[in-house]
Amino acid sequence: MINTDLFKDFLHLVQSRNFSATARDRGMSQSTLSRRIAALEAYVGAPLFDRAIQPVSLTEAGETLLPLAQSILEQMEAAYYIGHPEARRPDQKCHLISLSTLMLHFFPDWLEQHALDEPWQVDLLNTEPLLAANIRNFLSGQAEFLLTFADDRVPDLQPLRHHRYIVLGHETAVPVSRANSDGLPIWPLEGTGTIAYCGYTRGSFFQQALAPFFERLGPRIQKVRDNSMAAVIHSLVRQGHGMCWLPHMMIGDDLQSGALVRAGGPEFDLRTEIRLYRSHNMSRYAQSFWARVSEGHQICRKAVRIA
């Protein structure tokens, strides 16, 4: 019978991709961790990690084992709860990293939907300006959950492709502009004129997701302002400095009042998913939270090898 703690070692290493960091977090020496991973590899009968490159990456056998290890540990947790209903105490909490727009305009109402019978203690950690920094903090173990907009074409999301997630909903980023005296956009996407663009900082989610539109519009679109936060860009667009694509959850009232108008038709809309990613390494409290919020959702994972 194999020691199931080896699966915990395995999952931690999958997330950190670093032997020394995993050994430190798991409270053992690096040599001990290496022996434990070797024991698991002997049990499976194949190498689980490619150690020739840094950070380490999963082999094909490691990719196959990953969902099995996750399922084994989660079923063990479920069995533990049968006779230990007090295991998730009300004074416990879990941690979540969220992109700032979702933190302000989505997270509070969404969490409230899952607190009908009891409140959940979820600490929001400080949001970094760029997507990659938030993902790096999540992968380093600072939080059990990451709430983000998602589009599989965004390169910075690739490190998450071996993590499970649920799709909580969809959001549309709409091209908007301040209106002129005739109620038309000051900076229309149709036509041939130059378009002043209040842009997202390089490395932000929307800067990457909007790349096909930038290619389509070519040199007509000229960045005049730059910021990583949609809230700041929202203010600049309202003042007439330029146009931008802004999440509908942020600008719905502006479109209704006429403070902002569409700068282009629906063919210029950017539709994204809202995803909640979960860590491989979670406390019992976080496991309970995940079980609650994932009810009724398909649990997804990109079945591709980590490069």
UniProtKB/TrEMBL annotation:
InterPro entries in the record: LysR_HTH_N (IPR000847), LysR_subst-bd (IPR005119), WH-like_DNA-bd_sf (IPR036388), WH_DNA-bd_sf (IPR036390)
Domain of life: Bacteria
Domain HTH lysR-type intervals: 2-59
Keyword Secreted: no
Keywords: DNA-binding, Transcription, Transcription regulation
Pfam families recorded: HTH_1, LysR_substrate
Family of the protein in this entry: Belongs to the LysR transcriptional regulatory family.
Protein name: LysR family transcriptional regulator
Source organism of the structure: Plastorhodobacter daqingensis
